[in-house]
Amino acid sequence: MSSTSPDESRTAGDSQAGSAAETMNLVEAVRHALHTEMGRDERVMVLGEDVAENGGVFRATEGLLESFGDERVVDTPLAESGIVGTAIGLAMTDMRPVAELQFMGFAYPAFDQLVSHAARMRSRSHGQYTVPMVVRAPYGGGIRAPEHHSESKEAFFVHEPGLKVVVPSTPADAKGLLIASIRDPDPVVFLEPKLVYRAFREDVPTDAYETPLGEATVKREGTDVTVYTWGAMVHPTLIAADNVADEDGIDVEVVDLRTLSPLDVETLVDSFEKTGRAVVVHEAPKTAGLGAEIAATIQEETLLHQEAPITRVAGYDVPMPLHELEDYYLPQALRIQEGIRETVSF
Amino acid sequence: MSSTSPDESRTAGDSQAGSAAETMNLVEAVRHALHTEMGRDERVMVLGEDVAENGGVFRATEGLLESFGDERVVDTPLAESGIVGTAIGLAMTDMRPVAELQFMGFAYPAFDQLVSHAARMRSRSHGQYTVPMVVRAPYGGGIRAPEHHSESKEAFFVHEPGLKVVVPSTPADAKGLLIASIRDPDPVVFLEPKLVYRAFREDVPTDAYETPLGEATVKREGTDVTVYTWGAMVHPTLIAADNVADEDGIDVEVVDLRTLSPLDVETLVDSFEKTGRAVVVHEAPKTAGLGAEIAATIQEETLLHQEAPITRVAGYDVPMPLHELEDYYLPQALRIQEGIRETVSF
Amino acid sequence: MSTQNEADHHPDSAPVHGTTDPIQILDADGAVLSNAELPELSDDDLVAMYEDIKLARRFDQRAISLQRQGRIATYAPMTGQEGAQVATGYALATQDWLLPTYREHAAKYVHGMDLASLLKPLCGLREGYAIPDDVHVMPEYIPIATQVPQATGMAWGKQLQGEADTAVLCHFGDGATSEGDFHEGLNFAGVFDVPAVFVCNNNQWAISVPREHQTASETIAQKAAAYGIEGVRVDGLDPLAVYAVTRAALQKAKNPADGERRPTLIEAVQYRYGAHTTADDPSAYREEDEAEDWRQKDPLDRMRNFLTNNGLLDDDLEAEIDERIDAQLSEAIESVEAATTDPTTMFDHVYDELPPRLREQRAELESLREKYGDEAFHEVLE
Amino acid sequence: MSTQNEADHHPDSAPVHGTTDPIQILDADGAVLSNAELPELSDDDLVAMYEDIKLARRFDQRAISLQRQGRIATYAPMTGQEGAQVATGYALATQDWLLPTYREHAAKYVHGMDLASLLKPLCGLREGYAIPDDVHVMPEYIPIATQVPQATGMAWGKQLQGEADTAVLCHFGDGATSEGDFHEGLNFAGVFDVPAVFVCNNNQWAISVPREHQTASETIAQKAAAYGIEGVRVDGLDPLAVYAVTRAALQKAKNPADGERRPTLIEAVQYRYGAHTTADDPSAYREEDEAEDWRQKDPLDRMRNFLTNNGLLDDDLEAEIDERIDAQLSEAIESVEAATTDPTTMFDHVYDELPPRLREQRAELESLREKYGDEAFHEVLE
Ligand SMILES: Cc1ncc(C[n+]2csc(CCOP(=O)(O)OP(=O)(O)O)c2C)c(N)n1
Ligand SMILES: Cc1ncc(C[n+]2csc(CCOP(=O)(O)OP(=O)(O)O)c2C)c(N)n1
Ligand SMILES: [Mg+2]
Ligand SMILES: [Mg+2]
């Protein structure tokens, strides 16, 4: 098996300068990233339920079977612990498995393999055995999906040392972050906001660039208040930011975390030191969600800058209701604006 | 099947006045609570690995088989999802199963049944089907146990709406909280700090009292700083509090949360409004642990009282090392004192 | 077991069940096979079964069209599988419990759920999974195979409570047999010898994954050997055979012979004619004409032929049935589409008592709705 | 399969394997059974196997006593099971991989681990689970059955990489067969037809739960039917039979005959003479004399008799072996007890690169140690 040395890769910043681009939505960018990496590195393979013949229930793996054959694009039996467990085994033999779990809500049967093994193999073997595996799962609500199909429990994975957790919010980031995740020597849980899958298109460079893991990005600069968010919530947050700028003259900075574990504490803190006020927006239930970690970290590091309580705009602490009520459950621009205004007027 | 109406029960406060007591350690108190409730309510049954003939690997269920027979004290096959899944089924037929998972680290195979079903059955069926079940598990580190035997990931369960999460720190609380959990109409994850199992004895009333769920308790009154903690960490915290009182004249209030979900925000906030400074102590890894929720909540509710950053003294963000290093991994009085001093001198 | 040909398929010399050809009572044309014995069903019951199968097929058509019109959410059709669903429903006694997946609409209906209640979750109503009073059906299970250990637990509970006359019937698909929960649930059922019947609706596909790729075992029924229980294969497009086999399994669950274990794993061999759900396009993974062989054994046609041959059905009755079905369906759709939910009900029944933090969250939602109105919540991502 | 009596046990007419009496080569006295064929092992190998079984038994005694003295942590003994462990180890080629549980100390040793490395995790050393270079053994698996899908994945990976000469051997207990991961792992192995051999060390007990209560299936080997693979039962106290069966299974995994599937489920029927671990007291759940029958078939005694009968062992050699074993063990214990770990190494290898937050945490720990000294960390709860 041949592999490509990492120094051939470039970051998104580099690649955007001058290289070719194509217009893609997020799910196309995921597919494109898989295609790119499978073409570059024979060890990369895709496995999961309905990923091969059917091209994935969201079409994220469409065409891969035709391009790379049924040894590298594999439909598995319906068993998530089997999928992740075999992917761990594959990774330990130096394959680069990219396992798909059909929805984040069906990751729970694989929870034990993820937290008891994938996360710890490097540490327990003192660096001898490693799990360079990616577990992809569509994630989050807002598409009127059936019960259990709208989970966004990123905090479960963030709490487990040894896992990395990545959530893209745009097509270009999806591609760059997925490539970086595949090349990462550690296990990455890669959560794809399905509300964004087909929401919009943007130019995505066609070369094999990496968007580095562990780096948050500032989506909108502002001075009055920082909103920290990720995934699908980036978009209502940007709308809310525009609205409160127009209506209230509030200048909002929006930070898209992109990597949830390890956290980019530096970027989080830098922004807060500028604005002194913060809102965290996430879909998951508020209690013990990642918003808590962000609020706790910021007050720990920057209390003297803090001018108002850090507000969390999050899912309520209830199971995601059936679709008639999902607009009420999920944070919308409405609730984000309200959170921003409260925080600024404190 | 006959059941006992809840109004026959009394709270610990009532019962301590005048009723008989016996000296017990925590594991004996657990066993005593099970014995008491099984005697009162025929629907209560115990199931799990090695709970019957063997009386549990920590002897928490010893003697129950002899007292209540093999229909109500049942050794199961070695399968945690099977244990919790059947317990959910039993609970839905109006039994009162108390399932034991041998260690919290082996709860993960049952994670799906816990979060996707036990937690949601009431909500999804709009109150029609309920899961009055208790899942007990020995929990936490400090006894030089093998790998995977020292987990303390309470935050996983706290983040799932619909579950209750309870952690006793003393024999008397263990009994009262376990009785309350068994009588609770909702699923309760009951985590028993095994470091405390045999650490000390105290008087435990012999009657069938409940220690109400959802109520934190102040273990030590103080005015300078509040330490929030639970389970095994209550004890090094109390030592640390004495030490900093002696050595630095710092007057520490110690709050034992006891119920981690739903959180007793009122007691948390009341204490902080008095002291204006806080430390949270827990064994679990710091990142996205429950300490984050407590810090986030307090600053949300009481920023104007806040005189220093809320400090977290927690497990490091690494897998629990093998036993040679566990004293370095776990918060000890040493690190707690350090946290208190830093917080007070901010 | 009550069917005569069952004995032929399970000679005493073979210790392991479930490796044989599926049991049949009707041939592909609806004629009773020479070695088969008809189950004890009255003429009225036989006609009613036919009507229910027909209703199920019509329900499918209406639901698919409602989904196309955006009036309901993703729907999992059952065409081709109605025979097995209706037959297992008929085999149940009122006190028995049914644990369905997202696809067993007809089984639920036969076991007492009204049509409107079937549609409620599809309309996304908050209380979508509330089951009408006294109907012994569990809300559908979407996480695959998770119902299996729960079914074992329910059967165990009934047994402990001395309800000797109650059994639990648990449905799942061929794909579900790969999940750990299938294994753990069946193993517990064998060990605790609980009154449960497990019906695998082997429709040959788990979304795009064919049965042969799901497991290397020759049949699903033979997996019963791993749990020390009986495995039976039955023609899932033969409603009378499914009825007979399920009925016998339920009897055994309640009243096993000496040394016989209560649980049974039934593999009902069938085919999903249509898409996995309305969100699925089967042309991506299978040939359109694959269904043809199966359609030759269609459960609705076979029952129609059987009844007509036996003088139990004629054109007049058929017309009457059609009329009744359409009226029922239209009424159900109308009633459920009129329903709406108060958003704050999402806070109901999370716990027995609403904790303070949830009280606050509900109040926050209420005040936002008052301040901005409900439309503000439905503004879409631009 | 290379043993002659295997054919007797699996007549072609029976389609399902694994329901038969266990395969044996040696009788209880160590004489070769009349219908059995000896595996191809040199005299030296046979003696070496004996020495390793003896070493394993002695290791157990030393480890239990070290634990009683508080010098090592909880230990899982293997007495009674060493024969199966050593024999499976001998069946492996160097390039094959071994996935052990917490009990397979001897199998690991035979496959290349030194004695000191076996003791490291028991001493709680930070790097306890690092495996010596070029030894194809995975760190022991404590969460029951989780190794099964990983073994399938590793075998699959080797196959994809064209390492046709490599197979994976996965150990687990009888209790492990109840876990979902056993089921999912074996089902994947059958579907993807990977070069893996699964050895169930059925020692009749999962802590206090007897085999009969673990599953209602008559044998463990018959569970193979659920995965379309071969199941074999072997006398786990007969090292030569275990060797022959495992060897044949590994051969088949690498070079299956036409139409034959690669994976095998081996049930090695044995008995745990002692406690589950040093933390366990078996008198709470079983009769002391239950072991007697099994001790009559003791693997060490049988091998000793076999070798003596064949003139391969005498008192002198026995004394030489004992001396060697004791010296080796003492040296290993000494070397590992001298080792200590720098506390900050707990931050090593959590990720490939240490993230900033972990860097801070490590610095915090370092500064505390500097300020207060290491003793301060070991103060106990009063
Ligand atoms: C645990 C879990 N994993 C994945 C899914 C997604 N999913 C829904 S239906 C389905 C296929 C089920 O196949 P089968 O069990 O044969 O039942 P059928 O749909 O054919 O009736 C899958 C993979 C799920 N619902 N639950
Ligand atoms: C998932 C999980 N559940 C529970 C345990 C606790 N435990 C350790 S060993 C054991 C019994 C294992 O029995 P078996 O598989 O027969 O192996 P044996 O110990 O007999 O070799 C149990 C229940 C565990 N380690 N992992
Ligand atoms: Mg199917
Ligand atoms: Mg065992």
Task: Write structural notes for this entry.
Chains A, B: Residues 24-199 form the Transketolase-like pyrimidine-binding domain. Chains A, B: It comes from Natrialba hulunbeirensis JCM 10989. Chains A, B: InterPro entries: THDP-binding (IPR029061), Transketo_C/PFOR_II (IPR009014), Transketolase-like_Pyr-bd (IPR005475), Transketolase_C (IPR033248). The complex is a heterotetramer, with two copies of chain A (346 residues) and two copies of chain C (382 residues). Chain A is of the alpha/beta class. Chain A is 36% helix and 20% strand. Chain A folds into two domains: 6-210, Thiamin diphosphate (ThDP)-binding fold, Pyr/PP domains (Rossmann fold); 217-344, Rossmann fold (3-Layer(aba) Sandwich). Chain A has helices at 12-16, 26-40, 64-68, 80-92, 111-118, 121-124, 154-158, 171-183, 234-248, 265-275, 290-302, 326-329, 333-344; strands at 10-11, 21-24, 44-48, 73-75, 96-100, 134-139, 164-166, 188-193, 202-205, 209-210, 217-220, 225-229, 252-256, 259-261, 278-285, 311-315. In chain A, the strands form four sheets. Chain A has a seven-stranded mixed beta sheet with strand order 4-3-5-6-8-7-14, sandwiched between helices. A five-stranded mixed beta sheet of chain A has the order 11-13-12-15-16, sandwiched between helices. In chain A, helix 2 (26-40) packs parallel to helix 8 (171-183), helix 4 (80-92) packs parallel to helix 5 (111-118) and helix 9 crosses helix 13 (333-344). The model of chain A is unreliable at 1-16 (pLDDT under 50). Chain C folds into two domains: 4-338, 3-Layer(aba) Sandwich (Rossmann fold), CATH 3.40.50.970; 343-378. Helices cover 41% and strands 8% of the residues of chain C. Chain C is built from 13 helices and seven strands. Chain C has helices spanning 4-9, 43-68, 82-91, 105-110, 115-119, 147-160, 180-192, 211-214, 239-254, 291-295, 299-309, 315-337, 356-372, and strands at 97-99, 168-173, 196-202, 205-206, 209-210, 230-235, 264-269. A five-stranded parallel beta sheet of chain C has the order 1-2-3-7-6, sandwiched between helices. A two-stranded antiparallel ribbon of chain C has the order 4-5. In chain C, helix 2 (43-68) packs across helix 3 (82-91) and helix 6 packs parallel to helix 7. The longest helix of chain C has 26 residues, at 43-68. Chains in contact: A-B, A-C, A-D, B-C, B-D, C-D. At the A-B interface, helix 5, helix 7 and helix 11 of A face helix 5, helix 7 and helix 11 of B. The structure holds thiamine diphosphate (2 copies) and magnesium ion (2 copies). One magnesium ion (MG) binds at residues 173-175, 203, 205-206 of chain C.
